[in-house]
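#lab-general

N.A. 3:47 PM
ok so I finally got the sequence cleaned up, no stray characters, all 213 residues accounted for. can someone with queue access submit it? mine expired

B.Y. 3:52 PM
send it over

N.A. 3:53 PM
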Amino acid sequence: MKRISGKTLASVNRTRGFTLLELLLVMAMIGILTCVATWGKGLFAHGWQLKRAGHQLLEDLKAVQGQAEMSGSLTMSDGALVQQRTFLAFDVDSESYLAYRWQDRDGDGVAESGESEQLWQKRLPPQVAFGWAAGIDRRACSNVSGAPTSAISFSSPTYAPCDDRPCIKFDQHGFSVMGPGAVYLQEGGQTLAITGTRPGHFTVCEWGGERWR
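B.Y. 4:20 PM
back already:
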């Protein structure tokens, strides 16, 4: 009978491979890690898109505000000095907002059709919409009790270029001529808000489940 030395026996044991139970445990761990990674990636993507939308809108608001300040209140049109203003109108249905320059070409002080030039139009990122998630019971950023009443609470004048859409009219100082308001942005169960005061100060806040922060 052949004898197997301890060294040879150890070598045989080391090369015997995995048992079925060990393979199942490894596969289960891989599956769990994959699910956790996918779930985490989804949460990150949702938060990133919403924050991207809030940052984009805030920067665009400041850009229009700066344009209004640089343009001033008067300009030359057909040899005459006329009044001008800069507007930002929100189109809730198309999830977009548009910048306009109005010039009072006939000098009557009234914004009329044909007197406004569209400067640009921006759309919200995919999956982000104007609105708020369920459960919000405080007004944007102020934490005053009471649920929001509209996705965009700036006034909606009937005259061009607002045309019954929520709108911000900036004067030559970058102030909001039509008063304060708020814009709510939501993606799934997450919500951001941007508020604007009459002097033209904009604030971004995020709903934390119980209050704005």
